[in-house]
Please model this.
Amino acid sequence: MALFEYKQCGVQGNESECTRVYYECSGAGPAVMLLHGWGCTHELFVPLAKELSRSYTVYNFDLPGFGRSDEPATAWGMDEYVNMLEAFVAAHCPGPVSLVGHSFGGRMSILYASRNVVTRIVLVDAAGVRPKRTLGYYRRVYTYKLKKFVVLKIFRRPDLFELWRAHQGSADYKAASERMKPVFSKVVNRDLSGCLPAIQAPTLLFWGEKDTATPLSDAHLMERLIPAPTRLVVIPGAGHFAAFVEAPQPFAREVRAFFEMEADGQTGTHDGKQMPSYLEGGER
Model:
């Protein structure tokens, strides 16, 4: 158990913010970063950390804003979260690391891997693909803006606006603290699809077939856009937490085999990509 003090610099180069990040480190060997989803903590990955620590140095985080870590003092977006991870890696881990990210942690993994050399990536029901905007979506957005203008500018009642806004948005947004609400808004509106072609590390996609938060179509898009060897594993009937609720044992087995395959340097071909032999066969 440890705390990493992430010190950010202001525009003048002076230290402007220090965020304490809680993490647990176990095992020995090449480094693996475990990055949980929004609203969760490092506890989600404790069983996998125990499994991987037999052969790897595993860093299991409470990401800023969750668990025992500080909330960011300002409204962080994806760049700030990945800047923090880059600073941690620079301070603790010589050489490329491996990434395992669920949902929001998958967002971090995609952006980190698009601008850094990594050994391998496991994306678990990962977020990062902006959903298609329907007419209903735009109707809700402009209704919100109109109500905001009327209540704040015409009636000048910020108290009523805050009361109304508290009942809007997703369950994750409603559950967030006042400091984390703008963070949530920033990260969920960042489309990382354009980062996927820059990922050069072998990638395992692990998905719940009935995931409604990050639908299976997102996984298929990632599989197409990531040029590196990629394998998609789908758990029939499972949801957003397939790896931790419906199929924890298959998840651990798939990750272990994926990591062992990389360590052994097994290779093959699949769909025109240079594929490790374990990855042959695509979706299952």
About this structure: The domain at 2-130+191-279 is CATH 3.40.50.1820 (Rossmann fold). The chain has nine helices and ten strands.
